[in-house]
Amino acid sequence: MQRHVPDPSLAPPRPAHIPEPEWHARLQLAACYRLFDWLGWAELIFNHITVRVAGPGEAPCYLINPFGLHYAEVTARNLLKIDVDGSVIGESAHPVNPAGFLIHSVVHRHRPDAHCVMHTHTTSGMAVACKAEGLRHDNFYSAQLHGRIAYHPFEGVTTNPDEGPRIAASLADKDVLILRNHGLLALGPTLPATFSLLWTLQRGCDVQLAADSLRGVNQPIEPAVLAAIPAQCAPMQAGAAPGQLMFEGILRRAGIVLADLAA
Predict the structure, then answer these.
(1) What is the C-alpha to C-alpha distance for residues 95 and 64, in angstroms, rounded to an integer?
(2) Is-above-0.90 flag for pTM?
């Protein structure tokens, strides 16, 4: 369970009925929803960021945004707690979007390491997802994802539970899934680590879109260079909390304060 929150000394008091690990997860997830909005990654009231929460010996459950609220309206308290089937645990004034949780539930079930799952419909991400070649590994960011990306074919709006096993099979052991003609998905062991991964994926798509708008042939990266990149990136992922400093820094830049997220 992740316990890191930006600037913990400023965290608002925890409600008595919410366990401490869950409260930290709620604050961090609410901050991430606000951050997605600040970055322009929000899709009105649609799409989701989910985080797994559970006490010792408890069945896994998940935090998700209330359906009908914009990302800028998400708070630590109004986040929904749901089971793996998408049913709300406890009471809420807001519904959950079961169809929207389908992809997330598949990933959480299939991958015990998927503590956090993020799914977006950004313009450049969807544009790359629409291209037959997908994301090329020929820019600084996409090169870092070489060997880490899986693809899943488009089967229409994701409302059919029968598609779940096929999504799981497509994902396999990768931590990035490009949903063809649809969008981007990243998973990770913590929210900050997942955010860092999705940010790298998004930047790779942004640069590819820009490069393809220019005249001339794109410069490929030599296979030997691509093969060496995982070892070059390893020190950046070392330590107890990969992505945490990056996440905290951009929250400060966006002016997202924990005390504002407790309502």
Answers:
(1) 11
(2) yes
